[in-house]
Amino acid sequence: MNIQHIFFDLDHTLWDFETNSAKAFDFIFKENAVTVDMMSFLKVYIPINHRYWKLYRDEKVSKSALRYRRLRESFDALNYTVSDDLIHHLSKVYIDNLPNYNQLFDGTVEVLNYLEPKYEMHIITNGFDEIQDLKLERSGIKKYFNKVITSESVGVKKPNPKIFDYALQSANALPEHSIMIGDNLEADVQGALNMNMKAIFCNFEEQTIHDDVISIHNLYELKKHL
To answer: At a CB cut-off of 8 Å and minimum separation 6, what does 212 contact?
Structure first.
């Protein structure tokens, strides 16, 4: 494919967000005497969180609203009484503790070691500035990436073409020699394709997709394409 630059998403692509998030919630709930059943909480929280991230990408909610409302709606759905003060506190300590848990998807380090001699690698992430660098550092994979582009540093979120244009310019990369790898069809795949970049979809959840989208079911499969 004549690729020179690989742009990775971070959360849900390399960094196992759901596993690390569950561990962070387990810790902060115990620390703050929140006795909600964790499995029940995650069952309602995960789709609510996904919905709010979609609204956040579309500039329909603010960062602070996302962090508050996803917790408020989750507790309300479980009929578990929590004060607003405690929710604001939980939203803060969740972010503070999330980078303390850094499980990566199977094959992450092996595949990055395989790709590193062949390509320049970068990150484009919609995640919050204050923790994305910590995730990369503490999980031991920061060393693989030349440029780390966050939506907050650019002022727009994937799939906005401005963040891809900024990333390409920052990496001194041409779109036709670049590929985006991520777990979100809208933000990562379509966002990249709209910029005439190539894209690979991390279809770890076995979603039904169009045949013309290159997809992988685990990171090891990247070796077949790159």
So the answer is: none
